[in-house]
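Notebook p. 47: complex prediction with magnesium ion.
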Amino acid sequence: MKITQAIFSGSCRFIKDRPKRRLPEFAFIGRSNVGKSSLINALCRQGQLAHTSSKPGKTQLVNHFLINNSWYLVDLPGYGYAKLSKGIKAELGEIIRGYINGSEELVNLFVLLDSRHDVQSIDLKFLLELGEAGVPFSIIFTKCDKLGSSALENQIKKNRETLMEYWEELPPVFLSSTESGKGREEILDYIETLLK
Ligand code: GTP
Ligand code: MG
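Predicted complex, structure tokens below:
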């Protein structure tokens, strides 16, 4: 799959306010700072398309990007950032769930996990909720450039094992790095397959 055009098409808090054109949507979720917005930029090869930050809590709305005039990439706020006030955390949770449960166009939710760390309980809780709600998802381990190859391999193996305690079969799992471009082609090919 080649991305020839990527256009920001709007930010919204409520799903009723998303761009009016109904097209297939592929969304990105995960803990704050895991690299959702950066990955969207890397997929589109446009560094400034989605706003990123070294500090967690950057994306606070649902952002739609129209790709090749035929489908959307959707950047979501992150969950699990402890330093936000209770009120803001609750609000972000509502925005995330409002979108995930409300979009009939959501083809696949990419759940991003940081490849350097063990799967956190907040991630498991989120993944289990998705399973119960029947939301189709796949997993992307991000920031794979930050570990050496054997440390990365061990951590991914451990994380896969953790996930296998909850699911007999794992959904598709991708490894990504916005630094090296790792995973880009595989993720885009997967989207292409789902669009067919
Ligand atoms: P929120 O919007 O706050 O939920 O965060 P986010 O998940 O959108 O993360 P964002 O894309 O803003 O990236 C957070 C930080 O991680 C930034 O400093 C990025 O440069 C960095 N980052 C993201 N992906 C990678 C990666 O693959 N490798 C490396 N080395 N850094 C990355
Ligand atoms: Mg973001």
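Notes: The CA atoms of residues 128 and 189 lie 26 Å apart. The domain at 6-142+158-195 is CATH 3.40.50.300 (Rossmann fold).
Next step: compare against the earlier run before touching the bench.
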